[in-house]
Design brief:
This protein is mainly alpha-helical. The chain has helices at about 5-15, 35-50, 55-70, 75-80, 80-90, 100-115, 120-125, 135-150, 165-175, 200-210, 220-235, 240-250, 255-260; strands spanning about 95, 95-100. The chain contains 13 helices and 2 strands. The chain starts with 6 loop residues before the first helix and ends with a helix.
Length: about 260
């Protein structure tokens, strides 16, 4: 039989993998190039929105969009005419997403910046401290971006109310809220205790192996169940082990045997 990891095991994996040296390849790398929080949050939402498909294509696509926005993405969205961005992104394709979808996303972000000043301010407008997770606040942020989008961002910006796990959006929140050797943080008004795990196939597998969920569907209910399970190990930061455990999952069965030792 297999033994489920203890907190000691999880901390060991965290210390081993939660380092900048293990970040590549990950779109999180793009955020390290921005000192200003306003720029980092815009770059983060763009990079997270494009974080699907082959890694090489993710880097190429996110890099292309961020290059158009330049070294100060937030200021660029507020100053560069939408028509100019549209011309720059003409012909852009990332799997099923076109330049038009990216421009719609950028237009929505711009409207939020005009109204709230920052994405964090918008998020906090919808955030309620008594709620157990960030789900309501995340829905509010997405709805405001979509309301300001001049066009359809399509699947670049999923709607949390449709019960999707919204892995890329929760990945974005992890980057912005947590602060350690890997996650740059900056959203200090949002406690890490409210985050939900970014549910991908690796984290779903870990959650099932650890007995944190029995569900097969990779939806928001499963993400919340797994988050609740990790809250038992680290109530103040249930997403603490996400990066490290995802690295274990990506490295294959040998690493899984190290974590789920045979007894």
């Amino acid at each position: 039989m297999s033994s489920s990891p203890t907190k000691t095991d999880l901390e060991r994996i965290y210390r081993k993998y939660n380092r900048r040296a293990h970040v590549h390849p990950d779109p999180l790398e793009f955020l390290y190039g921005y000192d200003a929080l306003a720029d980092r949050e815009v770059a983060g939402l763009v990079a997270a929105s494009l974080a699907y498909g082959r890694v090489a294509q993710i880097f190429k696509s996110a890099g292309a969009v961020l290059a158009v926005l330049g070294p100060a993405p937030a200021a660029a969205l507020l100053s560069v005419p939408p028509e100019a961005l549209s011309r720059e992104l003409c012909g852009f394709v990332h799997r099923f997403a076109t330049g038009g979808a990216v421009c719609a996303l950028l237009a929505g972000i711009r409207k939020v910046l005009v109204r709230h000043g920052t994405l964090q301010n918008c998020f906090c407008t919808h955030f309620k401290a008594h709620q157990k997770t960030v789900l309501t606040a995340l829905s509010g942020l997405v709805e405001e971006v979509l309301a300001g989008a001049e066009g359809d961002p399509g699947h670049l910006l999923p709607l949390p109310r449709r019960k999707s796990a919204c892995k890329r959006l929760h990945l974005f929140l992890r980057w912005m809220v947590r602060k350690d050797a890997v996650d740059p943080g900056g959203w200090d008004h949002v406690p890490p205790s409210k985050l939900v795990v970014p549910l991908d196939v690796h984290m779903h597998r870990v959650g099932r192996l650890m007995g944190l969920t029995k569900r097969k569907a990779g939806d928001v209910k499963t993400a919340v169940e797994i988050t609740e399970g990790f809250r038992r190990f680290c109530p103040e930061d249930p997403v603490r082990y996400d990066f490290a455990l995802t690295r274990v999952g990506m490295r294959g069965d040998g690493e899984f045997r190290e974590l789920f030792r045979k007894v």
